[in-house]
């Protein structure tokens, strides 16, 4: 399996704070990988390490088979859109494209100009006067026209309205189909990730809670209902990820490779929330026993 990102026991410490701890994962090529977790989980730190903007405290990381940012050629293979889709407020749309052409040896001018026309962006308009959705589209255009092998997107749609988010995600899918690019997309919005992602990474407290192709994760996770004292029990060998009781009903999400007759299917949000809830409960318990 060709991997675009491979880490082993990766860690990053900021003075006394451990932002990323023992992070081991593999992201296969050709995927749109959704990275989800609460604030402070380590998502931006992980993406900063992938892009070479940060250096690890421990462990190892390879991006596209090499150390991140170890050469100009390696930098050219990774496109990055940071939070809030930052652009240069005083530069026009056309000036952004000219700057992109000067800085990126694989720059696709035809793609950039076609995208600007298709999205109705005025080449002479300064980026500072664009709407949030238009700025996001400009940032995505610049990243895509770089003709990178990997696009890293850190919360690019968090501040956008639903229509702008939908347009951004639709265009992202078009880019993946056209450019055959791999993507890592960080977001709090599980519904958005579910629309576009085929690989999932759940991060909490600086640790990977679960990671894998969405189809594989859906196949081994199940929801059991009516699991109270006199109700159903998880099958032998199944791992209980999270159990809850609401309004007299009880249920649990379990993980097992074996078929579970009568179980309800789960979706991407069910899986992510089960692992995040379990991680939050473990953090509370650790704090309570200190």
Automatic annotation (TrEMBL):
GO terms for molecular function: ATP binding; ATP hydrolysis activity. Keywords: ATP-binding, Nucleotide-binding, Transport. The keyword Repeat does not apply. The keyword Cell division does not apply. Residues 5-230 form the ABC transporter domain. InterPro entries: AAA+_ATPase, ABC_transporter-like_ATP-bd, P-loop_NTPase. SUPFAM superfamilies: P-loop containing nucleoside triphosphate hydrolases. Belongs to the ABC transporter superfamily. This is ABC transporter ATP-binding protein.
